[in-house]
Design brief:
Protein name: Signal transduction histidine kinase
GO biological process, one term: phosphorelay signal transduction system
GO molecular function: kinase activity
Helix content: 55-70%
Largest sheet: 5 strands, mixed
InterPro entries: DUF5931, HATPase_C_sf, HATPase_dom, Sensor_HK_TwoCompSys
Keywords: Kinase, Membrane, Transferase, Transmembrane, Transmembrane helix, Two-component regulatory system
Length: about 400
């Protein structure tokens, strides 16, 4: 039967097996009560009533005493299941010794009666269909020995017991595989999200600096141009590294620390206070006169996405380019638009830039909004500039505390 199978808990301590263990524990008690009542009804058939009552007492003490053991997959080991099965087989064989021979020949029920089914189902929940089939065969052989023959009644009961045990065992096997698949998918999702977060942080920090050094150094010439060339090479290499990392989500999730964990990510934050430092002589900010409240983590991510959009304006349009930020506080969402006066671009260029490892749009902007349950739309036409529209739903942010906590642990 092998060792005890590994159980998988998805999203915490819950496992699909746990309710089944509770059901098995309750089924053992109910079938015990049925066995006692059935024996009391046919007590006059037995030639050794005292021996039969002693067995029923032992079976009762064992069943009631191990309720908590069979209540959980952590406590019910194979040893407990084997002892339970042995006690059932003993009761079946004692029926032939204690019951009158003509009643045995007439098909009288055994002492454990349907209590035997709980032993088979226990093996099914524990190890799947194969251990269940083994236990069912053992009980079936004991029933044939007790009856002294294999008749249609015995065969009918044995087949039903085997079918029930194997069917439930097969379902358990499928449930375990499904749990393992789901757990693996959640691990991959978490690792991918963490990679995307790190990619955004690198883009907003290191890559922007390298890009600035490369651009300014080339303008200055001389030794600065050499430094600019090196910075440009490092920028390209780092972009390739980030892009390759994002395309391979099967590795372990990298760790990360941040100062945002010191603040409750669900604390209301006025978005205006985060956007105000972004405005200057080249960036105009239009926003409501009242507070625009979002959870702390969501407001910070939205402000960072706006900052990334402005970085793109300075990089692709020019340092002196004019840009406009418009904040709209709608009943169900917050909308922030960033518009520039640049020449515009072909929208197909976004997918091409992502393939080249340029993640300013895919991660620093769209990735952030996707994590918030929102969206980022780009509108551009030749000679008419570019507008980025960022939407964050309010209901999701206020109703998803756990999501905010994950973002706050950066």
């Amino acid at each position: 039967m092998g060792g005890k199978p590994r159980s998988v808990a998805v999203g915490g301590s819950f496992s699909v097996e746990q309710p089944l263990w509770i059901a098995i524990s309750a089924f053992r008690v109910l079938t015990l009560l049925y066995a006692i009542g059935r024996y009391a009804e046919h007590e006059q058939h037995y030639t050794n009533q005292l021996g039969a009552w002693i067995y029923m007492g032992v079976l009762s003490a064992w069943t009631l005493g191990t309720v908590r053991v069979f209540w959980s997959k952590e406590t019910c080991t194979r040893r407990w299941l084997v002892v339970d099965l042995a006690l059932i087989v003993l009761g079946i064989l004692l029926t032939r010794a204690f019951d009158a021979p003509h009643w045995v020949a007439g098909g009288d029920v055994t002492l454990p009666t349907i209590r035997a089914a709980s032993a088979v189902l226990g093996f099914a929940v524990y190890g799947g269909w194969l251990p269940a089939a083994f236990a069912g065969v053992v009980v079936g052989v004991a029933n044939v020995i007790e009856a002294g023959k294999l008749d249609s009644s015995n065969l009918h009961n044995i087949v039903l017991l085997l079918l029930a045990g194997v069917a439930i065992g097969f379902v358990i096997d499928l449930a375990r595989k499904s749990e393992e698949t789901l757990a693996r998918a959640l691990e991959i999702q978490a690792a991918t999200r963490e990679r995307e977060r790190l990619a955004r942080d690198i883009h907003d920090g290191v890559l922007q600096v390298l890009s600035l050094v490369s651009r300014r150094g080339a303008e200055l010439g001389g030794e600065a141009a050499e430094i600019a060339a090196l910075a440009g090479e490092q920028e390209v290499a780092l972009r390739r590294l980030i892009a390759s990392g994002l395309s391979a989500p099967d590795g372990p999730a990298p760790g990360g620390t941040g100062t945002a964990a010191a603040v409750d990510p669900t604390t209301p934050q006025d978005l205006r206070a985060l956007l105000a430092p972004l405005s200057d002589s080249r960036v105009s900010l239009a926003q409501p006169g009242t507070e625009v409240l979002l959870p702390y983590a969501a407001a910070g991510e939205l402000a960072a996405a706006v900052g990334a959009a402005l970085d793109n304006v300075r990089r692709h349009v020019g340092e002196q380019a004019q840009a406009w930020i418009l904040v709209e506080d709608e009943p169900d969402q917050v909308v922030v638009s960033v518009r520039d006066e640049g020449p515009g671009f072909d929208p197909a260029r976004l997918a091409e830039a992502e393939r080249e490892g340029r993640l300013g749009v895919s991660q620093s902007i769209r990735g952030r909004l996707r994590d918030l349950g929102g969206s980022a739309e780009f509108f551009s036409a030749a000679g008419q500039g570019t507008e980025v529209e960022l939407r964050v739903p309010k209901q999701r942010q206020h109703g998803s505390q756990h999501s905010g906590q994950r973002e706050g642990k950066r």
